[in-house]
Amino acid sequence: MDIKRLASLLCVFALASGCALTGTGGQGAKVSILTDLDPASAERTVIVESIAADKQGRLYLPDRASGNILRVDPKAPKAAAVARIEAREIKGKKVNADAGGIEFSPQGDLFIAAGPFNEVVRIRGADLNPQKPGKAETFATGAEGANGITFDKQGNLYIAGGRNGKVYRVGPGGGSAQVVAEIATFTRTLPDGKTQQTIVANGIAFDAKGILHVADTARGAIWKIAVAGDGKAGKPQMLAENPLLEGADGLAFDKTGKLWVVANERNALLAVTPDGKVEEVAKNDSKGPLEFPSAIVVVGNTGYISNFDNPRRDNMDANGKTALDGIGASIAQVTP
Ligand SMILES: [Ca+2]
Ligand SMILES: [Ca+2]
After folding, report:
1. Cα 205 → chain centroid
2. One digit per residue, pLDDT tens: the chain, 336 residues?
């Protein structure tokens, strides 16, 4: 028996102390707060929907409220603005980028989905600078509802289109995004009987074999899509559909191949096995540490989670209106 297998078995017997990110998953993974992004407030003065990491393990989060791209070094977690996405004037109205997915290309440039622009924008790696914050420029166009983004090994960018269910692709040079796959639209009504959830193509990530995985927030499901080198994609196949996945938003594979999914409206972190079993790793009420978790990135053995803190379902205060419980916009961490 090799060390890893032995460690796995020990994890099974030691449920209490989260062996989650070492490959077995399981209840009891410890979630804590790495940093509060607006320490003076529990209101939404900072709004982060996504998180990425560079090769040194520093974290990047676009803030919808300011347009700034924040950088946080987990070893000294104070946020610094290293770039910006300027608002635009569209048809005479000021439109914010409302940044969604964020991801580094294999070359080290930073890309961010800007749904209201129907674009993915780019900031060159060399321009990520707290002294002189870089400015985002158009990279991919025609990506309606641009939400989750990810790169394949060849540097092609894949973009999830949110409620339209489309998955777009654009080559390493950017330009007009082409639809390569489509998930059927769907609407779910939440337990309050009125809130509607319509996003079917949210977070996206490739597994080690190059199969694209897409989080379906509305159904509470994960889809798999086989993509060939030329961009030809197969029909989406459902990997898992489960009430635990209602609100499935960001997702990421760890180095053992385990898929981690945050379910935003349930304040929960799930693990999904390659055969589609769904396991709840962590869940809490409106007081945190998960506060409408929207995305996860894995660095080594640690998962870092952006807390979007939207007032909805299990993240809502007892008044059924606000999400002032907890600390608000923040980065949570989950450690083995
Ligand atoms: Ca706060
Ligand atoms: Ca809150």
Report:
1. 9
2. 444 444 444 444 333 333 444 333 455 689 999 999 999 999 999 999 999 999 999 999 999 999 999 999 999 999 999 999 999 999 999 999 999 999 999 999 999 999 999 999 999 999 999 999 999 999 999 999 999 999 999 999 999 999 999 999 999 999 999 999 999 999 999 999 999 999 999 999 999 999 999 999 999 999 999 999 888 899 999 999 999 999 999 999 999 999 999 999 999 999 999 999 999 999 999 999 999 999 999 999 999 999 999 999 999 999 999 999 999 999 999 986
Query: Residues with Cβ < 8 Å from 283, sequence gap 6 or more?
Result: 266, 267, 268, 269, 290, 314
Question: Collapsing DSSP states into helix, strand and coil, what is residue 107?
Answer: coil
**Nearest ligand (C-alpha, residue 324):** 2
Closest residue by Cα to residue 69 from 160, 133, 124, 8: 133
Is the distance from CB of 245 to CB of 232 less than 8 angstroms?
Answer: no
3-class DSSP state of 142: coil
Predicted TM-score (pTM) of this structure: 0.91
108 secondary structure, DSSP code: S
Tokens of residue 10, six digits? 């020990």
Burial (CB count within 10 angstroms: exposed 0-12, middle 13-18, buried 19+), residue 221: buried
User: Is the Cβ–Cβ distance between 298 and 59 less than 8 Å?
Assistant: no
Determine the distance separating the centroid of ligand 1 and the alpha carbon of 67, expressed in angstroms.
Answer: 18
Ion ligand 1: residues, CB within 5 A, are 36, 38, 327-328
Ligand having the closest approach to the CA of 310: 2
Separation CA 221–CA 261 (nearest Å) = 10
* Ligand 1 center from residue 181 Cα (angstroms): 39
Q: Which ligand is nearest to the CA of 42?
A: 1
**Ligand 1 centroid – CA 149 distance (Å):** 27
- Compute, in angstroms, the gap from residue 42 CA to the centroid of ligand 2: 6
